[in-house]
Each structure stands twice: as structure tokens, then as C-alpha cells.
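Moderator note: this is an archived Q&A kept for reference. The question asked for a predicted structure of one protein chain; the sequence and the answer are reproduced below.
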Amino acid sequence: MCASGVARLQAQIIQDKATYSIDSIRIRADRFLFLGDDVFYIQRDTVIAIPDTVDFFVRKQTLEKSDVFYDSVKEKMSRNKMSSMVYDAVFKSTAKGKVHGEGFSEFRFVPYEYAVVSPLEYKHLDIFGSSMNDTTKHNVDRYTNILNKLHVHTQRWVVRRNLTFRAGDYVEAQKMIDSERLLRSRAYIRDARIMIDTGVGDSMRTEVVTRDVFPYAVSIRPNNNNRALFGVKNVNIAGFGHEVEYNFIDDGGTEFFYRANNLFASYLDMTLDVATYFRKEGIGIFANRPFVTQNTKYAGGMELSRYQFGEYAYDPYTDVTDEFFYDRDRFGIWLARSFALKKTWPQLGFSKQMNFVISAGYDTQDYYNRPVVTADSNYIYQDRNTYLVEWGLTSRNYFRDRYVLNYGRTEDIPTGSVAGVITGYQEREFVNRYYLGLNYARGGYIKSFGYLNTTMSVGSFFDKGKLADGVGYVGVDYFSDLFRLGRFRFRQFVNMSYSQAINPTEDIFIQGQNELGLSNVSGYYLKATSKFNLKAEPVMFTPFNIFSFRMAFFTFGQATMVTNSKNGFFEREVFSEYGLGVTFNNDNFAISTITVRFAYFHNTPINANTKPASVSTSGRLRIRDFDIESPELIQFR
């Protein structure tokens, strides 16, 4: 191929800018333009070019009727000096002290509060070639048009069941943004927008606009805790919002999942799991209904499963590995009730609506065909019945952001606090004991610093008046503000966790890459009574793309220090991993991210297998929310 031909091919494959189109919008004088996280007052008629990857909306200067709107804008715009000056120049606030929440999500709906939703209409945008900012736009080539035609849009009744309001209801800003968030949280929807237009009298024409993802996907190394080599899935069967996934396990066997979401408009999600491989064989049925909004009153869940598990027993003295199996029947159920409180507790992060929640759960596990158990050995294979009750306070809000867990997609980042007390009783084969635990978590944006989410937990059984088999845990998740340099964007991610066993009956097995805290490490032999993990990952989001997959480069360093106070064989050690990688992201697909990693392992546990180079795919990740669900024992993690 000639040099010019190579250049043309490279230009087709690697572009010097992200794949987006430019929308030209005409804004009339005396309007407010909400552009991303900024607000601009437009004094005269203007035409502005805006990329279709940026959220914007325009409002007339009729917002002065809402004091809540003033306070919300002031809170947001006070984050930097220039925005604060704009606020002082444009607005004259008539109320003090009330804060509507973080982000601009709800501002669009405040002027329409107390109007009636009528009519309520639905619109589906094509996956490829459409734009949320201009719903009449359609720019698609012949290849992506084929994919559009293969796709079955999410059924209207499925979209309707995810809304927290109905036709004929009054417009409430909180219900509108909750509905948008719930729709975006579904694996089969890329983005959702509720648009309100003028109507007749007190009625407002309301349109729910959704944009699906392409539901068919092939995943590499799916993260289902089954060491799968690859999987195939459909996240939106016939537009019903149901999911089916089939994983092919690395060392032979398969695992099948079927997920039915939001059954009967109850926000109840159910999962069927059928596993047929060495480490797990059997069937499980799982149901879960979380507190989907701050106003949800009831939550609950259930598990009914029967599995045979396969394990490897490694003897470090003889360097011999044996296989063994055990069976477990498990039944668990929990139910929770939430009560809205009129007070707040801003000192501890309960600054918005605060709820009191009480949750009760029962869990029974029966083991058989198992290793020999005694009062002080093979503790994890003992039969048990656990009764737990947790009560506490929660306060939640959500901030819309981008370039956090995905490349440019609208993301709902949780902020707020949760504090809970866990009490309970456990019946085991050799001893019955009471349990007490405490949980506290708080997260939010800190001006000129970034987002910080912290968790502190401690819990223990009581055996003859003494602490036994307890765990203390501290976790910190942080990401910086988005830094821009030309068309490049940068974020720094840091994660830290520390677990400490309190008077354990025996030391604790650490298994798998998630528990160790290092990627692509498996098959190792490690026990510990304390573990400290630290991970740092700077990410550079670039304007380049390959075949419409946007590129981001990252480097990473992670280290785990373990100690063992129960077993002299294990000394204090530090295991670490360093490397770099690149991700390719296209939010139009169910499996939106392909990650290529190159790693150097400085030290690894005994008998460990490592992969210096790896390729994997992943869907949307989520940050821990600030709610109380199933009461659980504090885990060593």
C-alpha cells in the first residue's frame, strides 16, 4: 500500500477528535443557558455551536417566582469566583438558607411545579446517530443503521413502570429527577430525559425521551466472580428489560443468568443463576427490592440456593494441591421499612431529607459433604442460623457528572450519609452468640478537592462477655475534579481499605483478585488477620477514537500489606503491582468498555498465577449508595 493510502487508512481508524456532532442552537435574548455545570445569561439573540455530548437547556427569565431556584443556583455558582460574580450581577435572592440539592438536574422542573402532567408522551431515540439535545436529529451511516434496525426499542410500558409519577400528577422536581436517574440506572438504557413543554391551562405536555444501548454483547473476562473466560449476553430481550447472560468458564463449565427487572412495576428485580463448573454447581434464585428513592417506604429481598462448591487445598510444606468439595443449602430473607423525618443533622452529613430505617433479616446455611469441623477449625463450614436487625439514619442525593465511571455518559454520583446499628444473634454448631455492629458512611463533593466517599464499620460477636470473630473496616474512595488541558481531560482516582480481624477463631483465607486487591492474580495461598490495600490510578481521557470507541490512557499502582497474628507461617508481607493501560469506550453498547492492561508484579503470594498482559470488558460500574438494605455481619474484605 502506498504511503498516501496508509495515511488515509490511519485517518479512518484513528481520528484526532472524539466522535460527536455539533448542534447549532439559536437562543433569544433575556434567556439563561445551562451548559454542563455552568450557567450563562444571554443578553441578546445569539447562535451557539455546542457538541452533542454536552447537556444544555435554555430557560426564560421567568424563574424569579421560585425562591428555591435562587438558592439552588447560588449554591452551585458559589463554587468558583467567576460564577459567584455572575450570580450577584444577575440575581437578587429573596430567601435564605434553603438548599435544594447539588447539581442542576432539578432546575429545569422548578418553574413548572404544581402544574399537571398532561399529556404524558414517550419517545425512543435510535441508538446510533441520535442526540438527546436535538431529538429531531438523525445522522447515521449504512452500517450503524443496520444495527438500529436490528434493535427492538424498550417497550413503552417498561419505561412507564420506571417512572415515579403518572399522567395527571402534579409536577414535582424531585420525582422527575428520580425518574431520570432510575431509567439511567437500567443496563439497557444509555440516557433518559424528561422534557416539559407548555400546555393548555395548568396542564403541561410532558415527554419521556429514552435512548437505549445496543443489547447484544460479547464480554471478555466478565466480572461475575466465576473466573469466566468470556460470555455472551442480551440486556434487553424483546424490549422487556429482561437480561440473559451465558458465561464460559476458564477451566471448563458454564454459568447461566436470567434477570427480570422491575417485576409488576414494583422495583423488584429477580435473578436465576444456574452454574455447572468445578468451583460452583447448582442453582440459586435471588430477589431484591431496594430503596430506589428517598421516598420509598419498603424494601426487601430473598435468596434460595443449593450449590456444590469445589476448592483447592494447597500444602505449602509439600507443595501439593488437592481438590475437595462441599455442599451448601442457603435461605435468606430480609424486609426493611423507611420513615421520613422532618429534622436534619448536617454535622454528620444528613443535610437533605433524613429517613429512619429499620431492617430485619434471617439467614440459614446448612453444609454437608464438607471437611471435618471442630469448635476451633474449619469455622467457615459450620452450619448456622443468623438473626439480624439494623436500624439507622440515611440521607441521599445525586450529582450528575461525567468522565467518572464512563467516558462522557451522564452519571448519577451519590452523595449523603448513612449511619446504622446492627444487633443480632447467631446459632452455630458449637456455640451461640450475640452480635453488635456499627456502620457509618459519608460522601460528597468537596470544593476544589473532588469527591470523597468514606466508610467505617466495626462489629463483633460476644463469647462469654468477650469480643470474638469481629472485624473492623475503613474504606476511602476518592476521585479528583476533572482537569482540562485543551481537548484532554484528566482525573485522579485513589482507593484505600483496611480490614482488621478482632479475636478471630482462626485466620482468614484471602481468595481471588478482588479480595487481594491486585488485578490478574489467582491460585495463590494466603491467610491473614489484617489487610491494608492502596490503589492510585491517574486517567487521561483523550479526544481520539478508534472505530467510534473513545480512548483513555491510565497508569496504576496498587499494593496490599497483610499480617497474620494466628499463624506463624505467614509473615508481614507487601504485594504490589504497577502498570499502564488503555480503555476503549462506546456508550452505545451494553458492554461499553474494553480495557487493555500491562502490569509488573513486584511481589505475589505463594503459588500465585499472574497475567502481565490482559484484555477485559466491563459494563457500567456503580459507587456505593447511602442507604440501608439487608442487615449483614461486618465482613473482612
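Archived answer notes: Residues 508 and 527 are 5 Å apart (CA to CA).
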